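User: quick one, sequence for these tokens?
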């Protein structure tokens, strides 16, 4: 880790390329010739974040895309200057509840969580969320929705919603987010739209919601299209799997 400066951005793929360039990983040690050096590097890194990274207290950006870690250590709270944590493309990585101590976080991309493997795992988004400009892979099974209305600076928001309470809270928050450039919401199994027609109508007419995926049966929950304008909104916004 000594090759990286404290205030330098580190992408996990840069680490892999450095190891390959230094000869630490080569085809001589690969039995399966269909395996790439990058895939071997990912296995070499293991399932834990190297301890040295959390000592780089001035680190600004940490990208761990498609990583295979079981969880991140609670010591990432040491990275108090970090403004970007990117776990895009990763699966079921445990993220510790440390964001109330990381007040400079502006860009947060969570891993995708398999609903069958989540268990009771929860992530609190506390005081630090006020400065967020992007929040990717928000998941109502894992993340608290009551904090979303405090995210006044969000420009990019993507969320998976699995229950009616979270759906109402998220849609109400999106309505007042006037800085949003892109907003994507997926309504998934667990939401009962037949008992939540009003919030669905609000979602269809919300100018801040750019893409809406509905992966539950609508039944009679679809609001009546009273005008050509409403029909145009529905055609542009909705990708239905009925």
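Assistant:
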């Amino acid at each position: 880790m000594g090759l990286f400066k404290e205030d330098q951005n580190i992408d996990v793929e840069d680490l892999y390329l450095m190891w390959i360039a230094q000869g630490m990983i080569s085809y001589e040690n690969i039995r399966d010739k269909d395996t790439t050096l990058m895939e071997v590097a990912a296995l070499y890194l293991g399932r834990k974040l190297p301890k040295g990274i959390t000592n780089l207290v001035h680190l600004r950006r940490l990208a761990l895309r498609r990583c295979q870690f079981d969880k991140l250590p609670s010591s990432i709270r040491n990275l108090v200057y970090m403004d970007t944590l990117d776990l895009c493309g990763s699966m079921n990585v445990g993220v510790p509840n440390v964001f109330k101590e990381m007040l400079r976080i502006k860009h947060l991309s969570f891993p995708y969580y398999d609903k069958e493997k989540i268990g009771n795992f929860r992530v609190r988004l506390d005081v630090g969320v006020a400065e967020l400009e992007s929040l990717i892979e928000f998941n109502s099974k894992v993340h608290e929705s009551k904090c979303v209305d405090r995210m006044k600076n969000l420009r990019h928001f993507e969320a998976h919603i699995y229950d009616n309470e979270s759906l109402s809270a998220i849609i109400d928050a999106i309505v007042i987010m006037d800085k949003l450039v892109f907003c994507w919401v997926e309504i998934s199994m667990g939401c009962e739209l037949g008992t939540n027609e009003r919030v669905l109508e609000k979602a269809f007419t919300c100018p801040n919601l750019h893409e809406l995926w509905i992966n539950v049966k609508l039944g009679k929950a679809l609001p009546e299209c009273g005008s050509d304008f409403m029909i145009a909104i529905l055609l542009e916004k909705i990708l239905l799997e009925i």
